[in-house]
Amino acid sequence: MTPVVDSVAVPPRGHRVRQTIEQLRARILGGEWPVGGRIPTEPQLVAALGVGRNTVREAVRALVHAGVLECRQGSGTYVVSTDELAPVVARRLTDDRMAEVVEVRRAFEVEAARLAALRRTPEDLAALDGALAAREAAWGSGRVADFVEADAALHTAVVAAAHNGMLAELYASVGTALRSTVAQAMGDTLEPERYVDHGRLVEAIRAGDPARAAIEAGAFLEPPSGA
């Protein structure tokens, strides 16, 4: 026998769709459905989430539009990103907008450095030391791609030390843009005149000096942009 559902307890359709979107997003962020993997079929989602087929369809469509999922004809629906902002940023990333990207980096990284100097923990400092050492090693390797990744990892460690979850999420969304500005500044080879020491930034954070940390972070991003 089909159970009787109290109609008063059933939330409005729009609310059900929003809840379903959040459930799908949670499973993606939790790693249950990794990037590159296929999500369950529509009937399976209906059974697992306890909502109607149309609700599932609308929720999936919303995440496809956001750039998190991708429907592939005859194959299924796949996870293509865990971040809804990253595809938007990537679509807007063009050579003639690099100056804007640098300005956004500056807005994030200067404040992150200031907060990191106030909030860093011993674990954060150890992570910063490790990231700084890895950046130096990557520069020594002479490989541009390795240096770009190591530089981005150090800046990400600074943001993590700020202990502001929303700032960390937004910064992660511009990760591709961040790497692009560094790669553009470096060119095809790692030339000595393009090297920018980040040791003073880490030391300012270690010293708990927010004003100096902010100055050091901003200095890297003055036109012409550097790493």
TrEMBL record:
One short Pfam name that applies is FCD
Question: Which residue range or ranges hold the HTH gntR-type domain?
Answer: 14-82
Name used for this protein in its record: Transcriptional regulator, GntR family
Q: Which organism is this entry from?
A: Micromonospora halophytica
- Keyword Lyase present in the record's keywords: the answer is no
Instruction: Cite the entry's keywords alphabetically.
Output: DNA-binding, Transcription, Transcription regulation
Q: Which GO terms describe its molecular function?
A: DNA binding; DNA-binding transcription factor activity
On the tree of life, the source organism's domain of life is Bacteria
